[in-house]
Specification:
By secondary structure, the protein is mainly beta. It folds into 2 domains: 6-20 and 134-445, YVTN repeat-like/Quinoprotein amine dehydrogenase (Methylamine Dehydrogenase, Chain H, 7 Propeller); 37-119, no CATH class. The chain contains 4 helices and 29 strands. The protein has a 4-stranded antiparallel sheet with strand order 5-6-7-8, with no helix packed on it. Strands 9-10-11-12 form a 4-stranded antiparallel sheet, with no helix packed on it. A 4-stranded antiparallel sheet has the order 15-16-17-18, with no helix packed on it. Strand 20 and strand 21 (336-345) form a beta hairpin. The two termini are 20 Å apart.
């Protein structure tokens, strides 16, 4: 799994060990009974070919057809997201997942992989358990016949309804999904962004109205550093079978393209919305009808290559104080970077000049930083050496005037996709770790981040 993402609710941690659907660029799934590939528009698209060949198609029948298209010159493009690239990724994914060394009758069957995923959903998925024992189970969606499985970028429950069994999951190219009961053995999932009219839309951010559970916002983007976003969409009927979504903020302005990195709502004022778009922090005070620029991070220093924002958060005690983290790249080879922590106080007129408060941290950050808050304060985690093997966790309880050292850990493989401090017990902290980018784990501390297991 390439990316993990988590949420916290009532001391529960939900991870994106969720199987999602990575939709193709076409807008229909009603072609499953089509037997003639030539009658399917865009038949050079491997996903449409798989649909057209029907549910009995195997990896080998689809690959044979696609290989024929390549050999006969029907697929010869070099586009990053063209038919050839899609086929290459499809082949890479399925070539090793449709092999059954124990039963040759299952060799090449997509259904065999689905059956394996289903079995995992019914059993303990934890690997290499430590002395802290937890069971992780796959929640889905795994029931869809198209076998298009991938990663999840955001997972959330309704914040204002702690007894709700509803769960939302955003896929990088598969939209927003919802299940009404994630506690049952086989949760039923439905896509609730189809009516946007962009079936390939990615959802990398999800934010709920702090008061009204029917109002929500999504960031429509593929969560990578180099990709720009489609925009921010809003719905006011989230509980409907198919909510209506309206784009309230674009990911481009004429020839300019932006990456929308994070969206937050004010904890008590439902009309206040904050969006980090590239190095610009935007605010809406009318529920997304209009936006103003609160602040823009400065350009990189003369000795640096670029300056990129990474995270932002509202101070838990004083929401008029906002923190933004960023990373400055000095050189790519060798890779030398620095982290920055910025602060603004919401006092008009706007835009506001951000204040660099990096020096108030207990050590100098050597790369990007992740923020979180709880009922007890606001927290930041950051590496302090060039090898990114030692991390500090600091805390502020006075609106960023000072940051106190909380803990230091020597975990050489911390990935900052996850940094969660328990809402009511700051001894409990979750991080994403592991031995490599392909063997990631969730690690937990019970002593304020001194040790993780």
């Amino acid at each position: 799994m390439r990316t993990l993402k988590n949420i916290k609710n009532n001391n529960k941690l939900y991870l994106s060990l969720i199987i999602c659907l990575s939709l193709s660029i076409f807008n229909t799934y009603s072609q499953n009974n089509t037997n003639n590939v030539d009658n399917v528009d865009g038949s050079t698209n491997v996903f449409r070919v798989q649909e057209a060949l029907g549910s009995n198609a195997t990896y080998f029948t689809v690959k044979h057809h696609m290989d024929s298209l390549v050999e006969n010159g029907f697929i010869s493009d070099t586009l990053e997201d063209g038919p050839a690239a899609k086929f290459s990724r499809w082949d890479w994914f399925w070539s090793g997942r449709t092999v059954d060394p124990f039963n040759s009758a299952n060799h090449g069957k997509f259904s065999n992989y689905l059956a394996l995923m289903h079995q995992l959903s019914l059993s303990n998925c934890t690997q290499n358990p430590t002395n802290i024992q937890y069971n992780w189970n796959l929640l889905g969606p795994i029931q869809h016949p198209e076998q298009r499985m991938g990663r999840i970028d955001v997972v959330k429950t309704l914040p204002n309804n702690p007894t709700s069994k509803m769960l939302y999951a955003g896929a990088p190219t598969g939209g927003l999904w919802r299940t009404n009961d994630y506690t049952i053995p086989n949760p039923v999932w439905e896509n609730i962004t189809d009516n946007i009219g962009l079936p390939f839309i990615g959802v990398s951010g999800l934010e709920f109205d702090p008061i009204d559970n029917n109002t929500a916002y999504i960031i429509a983007s593929y969560k990578e550093w180099t990709n720009y976003s489609i925009g921010v969409f809003k719905t006011t009927n989230l509980s409907a079978p198919q909510p209506t979504w309206t784009r309230i903020l674009a990911g481009n302005n004429n020839s300019l393209e932006f990456q929308i990195k994070k969206i937050l709502t004010h904890p008590t004022n439902a009309n206040e919305l904050y969006v980090l778009r590239d190095n610009e922090l935007l605010q809406s005070t009318d529920g997304g009808a209009t936006f103003v620029t609160l602040t823009t991070l400065p350009p990189p220093p003369s000795n640096a290559i670029n300056h990129t924002s990474f995270d932002f958060i509202l101070d838990k005690i004083d929401p008029s104080v906002i923190y933004i983290t960023s990373q400055i790249v000095i050189t790519w080879a060798p890779f030398i970077v620095e982290g920055r922590l910025w602060k603004i106080v919401l006092t008009p007129p706007y835009p506001i000049q951000p204040t660099d408060i990096t020096s108030s941290l207990s050590s100098a950050p050597t790369a990007r930083m992740r923020l979180d808050n709880s009922q007890l304060g606001t927290y930041i985690i950051y590496p302090i050496n060039a090898a990114f093997s030692t991390y500090n966790i600091d805390k502020t309880i006075n609106s960023g005037v000072s940051w106190s050292f909380m803990s230091q850990n020597n975990n050489a493989n911390v990935f900052l996709s996850i940094f969660e401090v328990s809402d009511n017990n700051e001894n409990i902290i979750y991080l994403e770790g592991g031995t490599s980018s392909r063997k990631r784990q969730i690690i937990k501390s019970l002593n304020r981040g001194v040790d993780f297991k």
